[in-house]
Amino acid sequence: KKRLTVRDIRRAKGKTPIVSLTAYTAPIAKLLDPHVDLILVGDSLGMVIYGYETTVPVTLEMMIRHTEAVVRASKRALVVTDLPFGTYQESPEQAFRTSVRVLQEAGAQAVKIEGGVEMAPTIRFLVERGIPVLGHIGLVPQSVNAIGGFVTQGRGTGAAKLLADAEAVTEAGAFAVVIEGTIEEVAAEITAKIAIPTIGIGASVACDGQVLVNDDMLGLFSDFTPKFVKRYADLSGTIASAVEAYADDVRNRRFPGPEHVTARGPAG
Ligand code: KIV
Ligand code: NA
């Protein structure tokens, strides 16, 4: 079975909602793959896997290693990898060199970069050279230090800026765009106006598709849960009870039981 392509994603606009989740490891990628259209190896891994407070410390080497694992363990979904902070903002040429590594060494099919109007020339540069780009506008976490926190975007005069960003990214040739952390009316207006699919996160049901951080929606990452996350499972709770039961069994010599003994026989 062949993987979905950026063309399949683009063509879904106005037809079927695009389903996306993040994955960073082989076992999770394998579980998601039959059910999602697009797997994002997000730099959110800095927070949910590595325990950083933001995505700023994430390196290209991390993204490449995790992308390799996700690509190996999936066969159907389109795999898109985030270019981390500092590996593409300097120039289109820097973005190109970084993207080549992500496609060539790690096997992703496309890259995602944060930014609207200011990143449009970079997006165009990449797309014209054979690198599909997923845009990302609205709340752009790599700029958290400049924004001053994880703040909702697109309020008041911010609405016109966000629409301009969406149009610039579309015009530059992105195959779709993630819209994060904005108000429903703005997401609806952008989705109606641009020709490429919008994939929302905290941006309402008005978008053409949805993405969530896997660890958030499974209840695996529990440091904090944003309001827009729906929890489909409580894996933290499941893991905590399992580990507690194991510890209790070991301390009370109930594990290993006779059925877990590897081998028996005379010693020596
Ligand atoms: O890093 C990430 O997981 C993302 C999604 C939340 C869109 O960029
Ligand atoms: Na990201």
Q: Give the overall shape, derived from the CA principal axes.
A: globular
CATH topology: TIM Barrel
Structural class: alpha/beta
Strand content: 5-15%
Query: In CATH, what is the homologous superfamily?
Result: Phosphoenolpyruvate-binding domains
Q: How many strand elements?
A: 8
- Under CATH at level 1, the class stands as Alpha Beta
Q: Over the alpha carbons, how many angstroms does the gyration radius reach?
A: 21 Å
Q: Number of helical runs? A: 11
Which series of helices and strands comes N to C? HEHEHHEHEHEHHEHEEHH
CATH architecture descriptor name: Alpha-Beta Barrel
Largest sheet: 8 strands, parallel, barrel
List low-pLDDT spans: none
Mean pLDDT: 96
Number of domains: 1
Distance between the termini: 52 Å
Q: Ligands bound here? A: 3-methyl-2-oxobutanoic acid, sodium ion
Percent of residues in helices comes to 25-40%
List the strand order in the largest sheet. 1-2-3-4-5-6-7-8
Pfam families: Pantoate_transf (PF02548)
Function: Catalyzes the reversible reaction in which hydroxymethyl group from 5,10-methylenetetrahydrofolate is transferred onto alpha-ketoisovalerate to form ketopantoate.
Active site: 180 (proton acceptor)
Subunit structure: Homodecamer; pentamer of dimers.
